[in-house]
């Protein structure tokens, strides 16, 4: 399945390309956009893989070649094909290693040719870069899941088995006593009944893992009253470990690529929506690091005068910390830098009302922010 997105600021042309792509076998259209800002917001925030982007070249605000350059910075794995009514952009298009250059009006044969080129280029890339062995994948950002090396998700017969596996995985290879497990997962139950539940949950969890070809993962030890730990295979893709690695790589190399990768890996947050009480301390720890990364990203984009790209991390920041006056002041400043003065004033008034009971409202000073909005970054 080839996952594609497309952009054209002319709605009829966008609808035509979307319709042709949706009718093609083996293609899934992840999104159709009529502005570069919307497309960039999508690729920066989605966890969905994207294989190929069809970009109109002549657009208001940002042309397709510049958009391609920005995409290559934040999502270098996405292949680019250009759509245009003029041939004079061809040289610029191939300077950004475009896969194809399609002249309007676009017809089905044009798209079929581009898709074939994508398949050839991606197969060469896979042959050069991919590992000969697929890896077992454990995902803790968002709902907890395990996917086998064959690409099949492990199916859990009951929710407690999934939670127990998430809990043991959270221990990072260390053994966890039965007492700790009972206290964390069955804290409100009678001790004897909770022990019975633990044993039956471990039994079913092992069966679930074995059904996915994963044997000997849950190991039991009899020391200290009994304990459990996980023995994952060596080839393990762990999104939390990858997140922490990307954070360290960013700190050591000050690389925007690693910063963006860390933010994308975080997604909706550690075990988001799970309701696991024991996960709360780790959730808070990872959220705090994520907040710091978002603010760094916003600051970097503002310093590069890429204000529209700074808007998405700032939106996430004020959503995560709705009572943080400093962040709301930065949002006002960003809107001013984007020459959205009316929006900035409306946002300021809304936040003043929201934070009316705050002890110190000195940062939300519209006159001061208007005089020098860049000083907030």
Short description:
This protein has helices at residues 11-22, 36-45, 64-74, 90-95, 108-129, 159-170, 178-185, 191-211, 239-253, 256-266, 280-303, 307-320, 325-337, 341-354, 366-371, and strands at residues 2-7, 27-33, 52-56, 79-84, 100-103, 136-139, 145-147, 176-177, 218-221, 227-230, 236-238. It is an alpha/beta fold and 377 residues long.
Task: Write up what this structure looks like.
53% of the residues lie in helices and 13% in strands. The chain is α/β, with parallel strands linked by helices and 377 residues long. Among the domains are: 2-129, 3-Layer(aba) Sandwich (Rossmann fold); 150-234, Arc Repressor Mutant, subunit A (Orthogonal Bundle), CATH 1.10.10. The strands form three sheets. It has a five-stranded parallel beta sheet, with helices on both faces. A three-stranded mixed beta sheet has the order 7-6-11. Strands 8-10-9 form a three-stranded antiparallel beta sheet. Strand 4 (79-84), helix 4 (90-95) and strand 5 (100-103) form a beta-alpha-beta unit. The longest helix is centred in the last third of the chain and has 24 residues, at 280-303. The protein is flat. The two termini are 42 Å apart. The relative contact order is 0.08. The model is unreliable at 128-132 (pLDDT under 50).
């Amino acid at each position: 399945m080839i996952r594609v997105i497309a952009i054209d600021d002319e709605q009829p042309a966008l609808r035509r390309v979307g319709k042709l792509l949706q009718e093609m076998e083996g293609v899934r259209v992840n999104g159709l956009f009529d502005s570069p800002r919307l497309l960039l917001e999508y690729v920066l925030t989605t966890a969905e893989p994207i294989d190929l982007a069809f970009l109109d070249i002549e657009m208001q605000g940002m042309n397709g070649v510049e958009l391609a350059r920005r995409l290559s910075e934040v999502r270098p794995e996405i292949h680019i094909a250009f759509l245009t009514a003029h041939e004079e952009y061809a040289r610029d298009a191939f300077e950004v290693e475009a896969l194809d250059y399609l002249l309007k009006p676009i017809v089905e044969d044009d798209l079929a040719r581009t898709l074939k080129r994508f398949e050839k280029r991606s197969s060469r890339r896979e042959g050069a870069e991919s590992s000969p062995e697929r890896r077992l994948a454990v995902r803790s950002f968002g709902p907890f899941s395990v996917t086998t090396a064959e690409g099949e998700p492990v199916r859990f017969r009951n929710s407690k088995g999934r939670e127990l596996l998430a809990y043991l995985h959270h221990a990072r290879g260390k053994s966890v006593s039965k007492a700790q497990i009972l206290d964390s997962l069955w804290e409100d139950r009678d001790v004897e009944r909770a022990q019975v539940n633990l044993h039956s949950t471990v039994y079913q969890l092992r069966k679930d893992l074995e059904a996915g070809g994963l044997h000997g993962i849950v190991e039991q030890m009899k020391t200290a009253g009994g304990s459990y730990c996980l023995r994952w295979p060596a080839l393990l893709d762990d999104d939390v470990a990858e997140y922490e690695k990307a954070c360290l790589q960013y700190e050591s190399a000050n690389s925007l690529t690693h910063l963006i990768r860390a933010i994308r890996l975080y997604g909706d947050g550690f075990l988001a929506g799970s309701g696991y009480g024991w996960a709360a301390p780790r959730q808070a720890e990872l959220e705090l690091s994520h907040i710091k990364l978002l603010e760094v990203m916003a600051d970097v984009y503002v310093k590069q005068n890429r204000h529209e790209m700074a808007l998405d991390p700032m939106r996430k920041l004020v959503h995560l910390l709705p009572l943080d006056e400093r962040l709301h002041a930065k949002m006002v400043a960003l809107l001013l830098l984007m020459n959205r003065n009316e929006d900035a004033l409306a946002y300021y008034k809304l936040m003043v009302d929201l934070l009316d009971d705050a002890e110190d409202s000195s940062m939300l000073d519209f006159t001061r922010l208007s005089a020098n909005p860049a000083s907030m970054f």
